């Protein structure tokens, strides 16, 4: 996801009552110009929000990318020499719900000559969670100039179980390659551990199991070199493509096979279909050739799709296909459609962008792809995740209630959520359905539906997370009582410009020593006293040396957490129900720190600001801002997303 920083110096232009007021920017918030509300949303379309799973900067980038279940996998590569191309050095995996990571170092054949030959690493990688299967070089070198570097596993056709961390040789298939010469190629695999492979020098297929002791030969009656690729097909069959582009389905009841297509490339197996690509688009074949006459080229399921495609059947969105577009006649982008057996397609997503896209992969409700950004040095390769889920309509109702009038220019006040959603996807929630929940991030917070089966009219059907508590505690909450400690604490400034332009504003971690996360650091009742304390970037508290103490007094005390609330914030909170339609405790939670004066920088200008951390959000008061925008909420939603998904990699 490209970072959006929306902190610029606010400006409010007073006009006559008949002229709409301009909506400006404040610390940590985007203010939209006056407009006539959000555009109508196509109910059949999906929203496009990306989350960056990984970023690499190199000469070549990954040459394999896949998603299966909640696991995204990709390769890391290295350049062997000026003429011999790249080779895979390791396999990388990340669980996009739990953030669990795994790395597998491949064995490699290095090559030191420059006249001929090339280095070799892992090849023919396949992922079907929880298993990943690949081939890699063995210890027997192919000739002079080569050197062997061992990997994490001693095998030539290998597996790894992402759920257990165990791996090793697929013995049933490795027995076929006694020369240790890496002559096996993995073609397809299933989540129950069956592996489809071909062997150099043979035109037949071989099926082995990760836990099995012997492989089974599947005759294709092809000459060596004719078999290009193959997949597991429905009804216990196998489909393959010959070197001339002919697509075949085997007949398990006897010798021979059925021609089901021509001009084919890139096979994909489905639950009920076999898919392949032709110049016309994605072709499909369903059924038993013995009872249904074979149809040349099958059926055109998705016209116009490119070679870089993937297909998933029986998803919550139906049968769907995704592919990338590129070339001089059209911009780079992504397309996702649903299709049916009658040849009808419905557009679910159409996205264009400047960066080149390749290696599109689908599984269930997830789409991943690689985005290439070209720079003066090495290009940057970003692996992006898009959740193919529909937003809960109650999210929009909640936003309309609070921020709809702001977006429409009917009122001049700060945002409660933000001008638009920044991300939509699933996150781990132990008590949710399938241990997941749907979330929608805004600048100011995160909307979440923890129990979608309950009454959607309940005011707590949509809640916003304890994001500030997590940021300060440096713990990511995965359930009511399930937490993991983040690797990187959040030093993002709680107000103002990004850290590189805002060096003196305290970050969330700096508030740890003054916050009440578990009953510590509570303050006495100070109602009626001035807010006269300051905090610096290191979390050091002192008496405010300026005259700002006269601007605010404590007006209320929250015994639930043991902290005082300034009058400026208390007035804002008491008006929240009338202005935004929500009780302030629903929006904010309770204060977990006292209020402090500090310094922030906005659009290059230093200015004083009063901050106070609440369980769910941060309040700021900036005396230099225009009336109506002096009290605002910090960009906690932006900060939390960056901390959880970009900094904690």
Structure description:
- By secondary structure, the chain is mostly beta strands.
- The chain is 9% helix and 38% strand.
- It is built from seven helices and 44 strands.
- The chain has a four-stranded antiparallel beta sheet with strand order 1-30-29-28, with no helix packed on it. Strands 2-3-4-5 form a four-stranded antiparallel beta sheet, with no helix packed on it.
- Helix 3 crosses helix 7 (636-647).
- The longest helix has 15 residues, at 393-407.
- The model is unreliable at 1-42 (pLDDT under 50).
Concise overview:
It is built from 7 helices and 44 strands. The chain is mostly beta strands and about 650 residues long. Strand 18 and strand 19 form a beta hairpin.
């Amino acid at each position: 996801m490209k970072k959006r920083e929306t902190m610029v110096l606010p400006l409010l232009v007073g006009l006559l009552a008949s002229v709409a007021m301009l909506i400006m920017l404040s610390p940590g918030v985007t203010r939209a110009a006056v407009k006539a509300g959000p555009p109508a949303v196509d109910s059949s379309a999906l929203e496009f929000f990306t989350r960056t799973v990984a970023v690499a900067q190199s000469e070549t980038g990954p040459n394999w990318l896949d998603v299966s279940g909640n696991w995204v996998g990709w390769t890391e590569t290295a350049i062997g020499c000026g003429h011999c191309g790249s080779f895979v050095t390791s396999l990388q995996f990340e669980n996009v719900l739990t953030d669990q990571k795994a790395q597998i170092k491949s064995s490699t054949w290095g090559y030191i000559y420059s006249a001929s030959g090339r280095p070799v690493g892992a090849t023919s990688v396949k992922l079907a969670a929880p298993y990943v299967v690949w081939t890699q070089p063995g210890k027997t070198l192919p000739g002079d100039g080569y050197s062997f570097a061992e990997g994490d596993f001693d095998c030539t056709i290998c597996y790894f179980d992402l759920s257990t961390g165990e791996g090793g040789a697929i013995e049933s298939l490795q027995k076929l390659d006694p020369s240790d010469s890496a002559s096996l190629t993995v073609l397809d695999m299933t989540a129950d551990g069956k592996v489809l492979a071909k062997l150099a020098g043979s035109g037949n297929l071989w099926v082995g199991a990760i836990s099995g002791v012997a492989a089974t030969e599947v005759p294709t009656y092809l000459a060596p070199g004719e078999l290009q690729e193959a997949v597991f097909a429905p009804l216990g069959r196998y489909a393959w493509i010959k070197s001339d582009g002919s697509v075949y389905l085997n007949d398990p009841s006897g010798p021979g096979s059925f021609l089901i297509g021509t001009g084919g490339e890139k096979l994909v197996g489905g639950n009920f279909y076999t898919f392949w690509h032709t110049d016309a688009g994605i072709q499909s074949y369903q059924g038993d050739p013995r009872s249904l006459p074979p149809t040349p080229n099958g059926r055109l399921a998705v016209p116009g799709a490119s070679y870089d495609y993937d297909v998933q059947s029986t998803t919550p969105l139906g049968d769907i296909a995704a592919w990338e577009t590129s070339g001089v006649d059209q911009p780079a982008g992504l397309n996702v459609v649903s299709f049916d057996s009658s040849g009808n397609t419905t557009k679910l997503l159409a996205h264009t962008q400047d960066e080149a896209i390749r290696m599109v992969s689908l599984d269930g409700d997830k789409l991943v792809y690689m985005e290439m950004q070209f720079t003066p040095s090495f290009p940057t390769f970003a692996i992006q995740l898009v959740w193919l889920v529909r937003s809960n309509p109650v999210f929009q109702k909640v936003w309309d209630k609070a921020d709809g009038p702001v977006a429409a220019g009917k009122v001049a006040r700060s945002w409660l959520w933000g001008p638009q959603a920044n991300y939509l996807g699933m996150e781990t929630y132990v008590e949710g359905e399938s241990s997941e929940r749907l979330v929608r991030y805004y600048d100011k917070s995160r909307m979440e539906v923890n129990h979608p089966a309950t009454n959607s009219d309940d005011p707590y059907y949509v809640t916003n997370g304890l994001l500030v508590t997590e940021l300060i505690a440096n713990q990511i909450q995965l359930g009511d009582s399930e937490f993991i400690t983040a690797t990187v604490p959040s030093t993002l400034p709680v107000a103002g410009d990004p850290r590189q332009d805002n060096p003196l504003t305290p970050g969330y971690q700096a508030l740890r020593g003054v916050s009440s996360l578990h009953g510590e650091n509570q303050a006495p009742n100070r109602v009626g006293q001035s807010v006269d304390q300051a905090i610096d970037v290191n979390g050091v508290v002192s008496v405010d040396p300026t005259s700002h103490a006269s601007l605010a007094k404590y007006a209320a005390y929250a015994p639930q957490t043991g902290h005082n609330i300034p009058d400026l914030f208390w007035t804002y909170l008491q008006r929240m129900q009338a202005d935004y339609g929500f009780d302030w405790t629903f929006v904010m939670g309770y204060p977990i720190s006292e209020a402090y004066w500090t310094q922030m920088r906005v659009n290059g200008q230093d200015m004083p600001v009063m901050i106070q951390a609440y369980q769910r959000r941060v309040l700021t008061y900036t005396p230099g801002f225009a009336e109506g925008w002096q009290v605002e909420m910090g960009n906690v939603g932006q900060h939390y997303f960056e901390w959880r998904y970009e900094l904690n990699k």
